[in-house]
Amino acid sequence: MIGQHRRGQRIGEMLLRHIEALVETDQFFITTNLSNHPMQRLLARLGYVSCGFIDQLDPGDPEIVYVKTLKKAA
Fold first, then answer.
1. The CATH number of the domain where 52 resides is what?
2. Is 61 in contact with 11 (CB distance < 8 Å)?
3. What is the pLDDT of residues 4-22, one digit of tens each?
4. Would you say 27 and 48 are in contact if contact means Cβ atoms under 8 Å apart?
5. Helices and strands counted in the chain (H then E)
6. Does residue 15 sit within a domain?
7. Does 74 fall in a domain?
8. Res. 72: pLDDT tops 80
9. What is the value of pTM for the model shown?
């Protein structure tokens, strides 16, 4: 989570891109709450697609599961 005073500086994007570079699989999954619209916009901008829901982690605010296919060198 990025602190309120640091939002809008692309820190979340930099963190996600760094994590993606470390992932050793072809797909990376991540979740965010249905109510977290800024994170949903970030994930869409970075090429993630919604692929499911998880209920009851935060009752009344389900998690949306996203996936991104990563281009990994063989």
1. 3.40.630.30
2. no
3. 888 787 888 999 999 999 9
4. no
5. 2, 3
6. yes
7. no
8. no
9. 0.86
Which residue(s) pair with 54 in the sheet?
A: 63
Q: How many domains does the chain have?
A: 1
Kindly state the tokens that stand for 47.
């090429």
Q: Is residue 55 part of a domain?
A: yes
Q: Which residue has the tokens 């699989």?
A: 25
* Full residue range of the structural domain in which residue 8 is found: 4-69
Q: Provide mean pLDDT across the span 33-57.
A: 95
Task: Quote the distance between the C-alpha of residue 1 and its chain's center.
Answer: 11
How far is it, in rounded angstroms, from Cα 31 to Cα 12? Answer: 14
Establish if 32 belongs to a structural domain. Answer: yes
The number of residues making up the chain comes to: 74
